[in-house]
Task: structure prediction
Amino acid sequence: MENEAQNPAEQARQNDADAAPESRPAADAPRPLGVHVIAVVVGLEALAIAAMGVGSIISAFTTPMYSAASGVFLIVLLLALAAGLAAVAFNAFKGMRWTRSAAFVWQLLMVALAVPALLEGNTLLGLALLLPAVAVAYFLFTPKVVEFSQRTGAQNNVM
Result:
């Protein structure tokens, strides 16, 4: 029988295979500048949060804690957040589709931290938080980055 029932995953693979070549990003297409900026900025943010997590671990052993549970929770939260942001940076560089929303939400949180710092007069910290977030948010919506970042898990052939 020519038209057998298929599960949704097989139908999606068939639809991807039937799609016109120009509608799919080419595996050898050069990465736009915006992809590099997004991956580097989000990667540096992941490193900064990982450093805060390591600092929290050191602080947990060298200074008295008021609450061990909250200290452990903060350490786990920081390290998990750093791992998540590192995954976003790595997969954004590969052009995975899901990373754009995660990176955008994180940049909105960075703006939410930057605005009070700027309003309180801490200009250097506020700008250090705001400018990279604005740059990433801008590049996330440029047409070249949107076109490049259309890969799904089934199309994971770009390194």
